[in-house]
Specification:
Elements lengths: L1 H28 L3 H23 L5 H27 L1 E4 L6 E4 L1 H51 L4
Antiparallel strand pairs: 1-2
Helix pairs in contact: 2-3, 2-4, 3-4
Length: 158
């Protein structure tokens, strides 16, 4: 019986150490929550500006479709993330200078969903970046083709 008691005690000690390690990591995260929250808010504003700029570009129908799909996906993800960030924030400060502050407890609860949305947002940004680069390459090729045609029409070899 003493062996079983020793094994059970060892298991309990290991579980307590694991729980303590988890608690310590949570306490270490708390000071960075406001910085993470502020960074995410800036990132969302930047992405909104990018999506607006992209929507004003003159593109071919195929390029426009690819970029619109990527931008729409990015907008959906940022909308979900905005809702989650609103849940995790509160306004503070005087009326004329309100600031958003992170609700730290709520942030810790929603942390896994926030991370998932951040990953999806990163992938959507990469897709949009790919679509924009494809458009740029396509424009470069069209420009070279038109320049070559013009040179041939004018009788220029080079």
């Amino acid at each position: 019986m003493e062996v079983l008691g020793a094994v059970a005690s060892s298991i309990a000690v290991v579980q307590a150490l694991a729980a303590g390690k988890h608690a310590v990591s949570l306490f270490r995260e708390i000071p960075d929550i406001q910085k993470d929250f502020d960074y995410l808010m800036k990132e969302l504003n930047m992405i909104k500006s990018m999506a607006q700029a992209v929507s004003r570009m003159a593109l071919t129908a195929l390029e426009q479709d690819l970029i619109n799909t990527a931008a729409r996906n990015l907008n959906e993800i940022t909308a979900e993330l905005e809702v989650l960030l609103r849940i995790c924030s509160r306004e503070s400060g005087p009326e004329e200078n309100k600031m958003n502050k992170a609700r730290k407890r709520k942030w810790l609860v929603e942390k896994s969903d926030i991370k998932k949305l951040q990953q999806r947002m990163s992938q959507a940004k990469e897709t949009l970046h790919f679509a924009l680069n494809s458009s740029r390459v396509s424009n470069d090729i069209r420009w070279v083709y038109h320049t070559w045609n013009l040179a041939m029409a004018l009788g220029i070899d080079r």
